[in-house]
Amino acid sequence: MQNKDVALEKNLGLFGLILFGLAYMTPMIVFGTYGVLYEASTGNVATAYLFALIAMLFTAGSYALMAYKYPSSGSSYTFVSRVFGDKIGFLTGWTILLDYLFLPMVIWLIGGIYLEAMAPSIPLWFWIVAFIVLTSALNFIGFGVAKKVNLVLMLIQIGVVIAFCALALMYIQGSSNTIATPSLDILASDNLAPIFSGAAIACYSFLGFDAVSTMAEETENPKHNVPKAILLVTLLGGVIFIISSWILGSAFPDISVFAAESASADIAKQVGGVIFSSVFIATLVIAQFTSGVSAQASASRLMFAMGRDGVLPSGFFGKLHEKFRTPYLNIFIVGIIGLLALRMDIATSTSFINFGAFSAFVLVNMSAFKEYFRLDNSERTLKQKILHLVIPTIGALSVFKLLTSLDANALMLGALWLAIGVCYLIYLIVKGKTLTLDME
């Protein structure tokens, strides 16, 4: 039974969860990382997003299934712990920390890069620090306030996405370009390797779907609202990413003349002029701020869950602010880690993050698979076979393929992070630390 002194306040419904997930996912990130994805996939950005969506939808199905069974703020850490035990659960939580702790850093880095492009006289470090301070302050007050801010910012963001696509279509009509038509030639063996590499990076854009499950203890009727939100956020985000990148790819088949990390700003200027380019950059920065709020909130909740269970020092990580009921110390830790953005680039940091996400995704799919064998014989219907066996198997295989498609540096850094986690787990075991879950 949870102590009321470490209980999170329930203030999110289905709409609030979807808003949270989309804010975390940031629909405009399709533009923010377009140039990087273009290089990785050799121009096949929309196809890379399609491959990523397929893998993420099956994995989202496993997350939805597990979130229905175990509605708590620990996400993959909780799911795997329940099925495979506390030790494997700890390693899952440790690997997903790689995603959650460093994702806000990437979000703030992308926002800073575009702001620096718009105002070169102001250094990048200023923008990154400003992001960190404002986001941390908002999360410190509580996500109930952040939710209201997210609603306004999300509506603005969706409006700019639609405007960008509309202007790109008008640009196509006024040029010699045409809307690209799907071709099976793209699936030739020579083309698949870069597409998988692009898809591995594109999955960064989908990470909001699993973050939804970290808010379960702050959600009304989580057994129903969390699974629905997970699936809807994944599908909605994927549709936005595929359509937007398809239109941009049709308008500009070759973007080699643009700087990869800020290519969309140049494209916005080409299709809409200086005024729209300024509006686009401003909205992208706002979108990054919105996403940063959600990412930092999720990271702090995951550390809170692990601290409450004692696998991280509970006196620090499992502590809530007396007035605002937020894990404020964890929020500040994420902010400090965000300063690493001053030394990182987008391509390396997104691949690094995805190592942790993919590792956890595979284990969640395996957990959903194993759950089937806990069912009574009378419960093992065709529907349950599909939900527990077919969907998780496809999800695990798809994600594992993406994991092996990450670049060598990401795999090396990810393996190092995992090795540190194993050493820490051994330390906990030697010290006789019990890794017992304390969640409803």
From TrEMBL:
It is a multi-pass membrane protein. Keywords: Membrane, Transmembrane, Transmembrane helix. The keyword rRNA-binding does not apply. The chain crosses the membrane at residues 12-36, 48-68, 88-110, 122-144, 151-172, 192-209, 229-252, 272-293, 328-346, 352-373, 385-404, 410-430. Its main location: membrane. Residues 25-368 form the Amino acid permease/ SLC12A domain. It is found in: Membrane. This is APC family permease.
